[in-house]
Amino acid sequence: MPQITVIGLGICQPPLLSPQALNALSICDCVMGSPRQLDSLAHVETSASTTHLPLPKLKQIANHINGFKHVVILASGDPLLFGIGKYLQAQFTSHKITCTSGVSSVQGACELTGLSLQDAQLVSLHGRPLSNLNRYLQPNRDLLILTDQNSHPQAIAQALVAANLGQSKLHVCERLGYDDQTHRQFTASELATSAMTFADLHVTVVNTQGMGNVKPNFPGIPDAHFITDGESGKGLLTKREVRLNILALIQAAPREVVWDIGAGCGGVAIELALWNPLGNVYGIERHDQRVACLNANKDAFGVSTNLHTIQGRAPDALADLDDPDKVFIGGSGGDLSAILQLSWQRLKPGGRLVASAVTEPSKATLREFSQHIDLAPTDYLQVAVSRHDTIAGQDLLRPALPVTLMFWHKALTEVNQ
């Protein structure tokens, strides 16, 4: 396996190369990159062969570097900022990868617009669904957006208008670092219907302004915001008051794997993915209509990157999933006992298992499971909520069915059987 150096070329033309990058180019026997990147190094003397490496071939990169001792791969800006660097580190042993960074397009956009990078939310839509933007569509945010052909400025403006953020300001920064770089400013409302064209190389900076009416700013999303298999917010959905208790018990953390078994239309799974973007949530559901609602909510809340829908019946549908750090069991289809036992077996040491029950047989199954593992629940509570209603024109509070929640904490020293 050759030594690989990833050189971030930066936005300056010609690129400003560090001594480390120049040394790598002088000793390498192969340089790989796009035609534009290779052309930008025409002024650098090197005896290495050059290879055009289209992005679709990245997954076969190992086939292209066999036989070389030292390979240079060209990247844009900072290769470790939504770039090829992280991908290569995952594919090859870290000691074989060295990354050097140039000035990124994100930094160039901040310079043009006067935005402080630490005050902004960096969003990459490059190679990702435009719907991922939805998770960030709240008022008074600064967004730095890396785009592709499906997330052009007009598409972003249209998403802002749909979120009642039509007053938002968009800065489109094109061909950063080139002699013909431009910076144009628009409101979302005016750009949404414009036929204007933009250079392929651009960064969009957004300052969201307006009332907003779509995405929440805090856990506890109103039930009516979800698409369900019944009237809006009234299908198979864990209701907000119960959902908040579940989120508090689960305590999902960055980079953890969470299973939501019997996810229904996605109330719990959506919030787990939305508020913990660095975690991975698996929503397991077997009913076709509920899966369709779960997927629709996944797009609506912009969590398709870290919420994975698994259609199937537990426990069989759990077989190929990564072992979980946290598990919530909200539905079982009559297999609660088997699901509890398998979930506990697969749960990582230090993990949490939370289960809900409404019927007396389900509550009894939870108690039996606790006896089976010889471990009392860390928490055992019943959530009883009454909501406003009217009868004969008079106000009243109508009680919903109480929901029992049990939570078990697996010891750090315990080894899965």
Give the domain tally: 3
Distance between the terminal alpha carbons, to the nearest Å? 38 Å
User: CATH class of the largest domain, please?
Assistant: Alpha Beta
Helical residue percent band: 25-40%
Structural class based on helices, strands and sheet pairing: alpha/beta
Q: Which stretches are low in confidence, meaning pLDDT under 50 for 5 or more residues running? A: none
Annotated CATH homologous superfamily of the largest domain = Vaccinia Virus protein VP39
Strand order of the largest sheet: 13-12-11-14-15-19-16
Q: How would you explain this protein's 3D organization?
A:
The structure is a single chain. The chain is an alpha/beta fold and 417 residues long. It has 3 domains: 3-103, Cobalt-precorrin-4 Transmethylase, domain 1 (3-Layer(aba) Sandwich); 106-207, 2-Layer Sandwich (Methyltransferase, Cobalt-precorrin-4 Transmethylase, Domain 2); 223-409, Rossmann fold, CATH 3.40.50. It contains 12 helices and 19 strands. The strands form 4 sheets. It has a 7-stranded mixed β-sheet, sandwiched between helices. α10 (288-300) links the parallel β12 (280-285) and β13 (307-311). α8 crosses α9 and α11 (336-346) runs parallel beside α12 (360-372). The radius of gyration is 26 Å and the shape is flat. The chain starts with a strand and ends in an 8-residue tail after the last strand.
Summary of the model, kept short:
The chain has three domains: about 100 residues, Cobalt-precorrin-4 Transmethylase, domain 1 (3-Layer(aba) Sandwich), CATH 3.40.1010.10; about 100 residues, Tetrapyrrole methylase, C-terminal domain (Methyltransferase, Cobalt-precorrin-4 Transmethylase, Domain 2); about 190 residues, Vaccinia Virus protein VP39 (Rossmann fold).
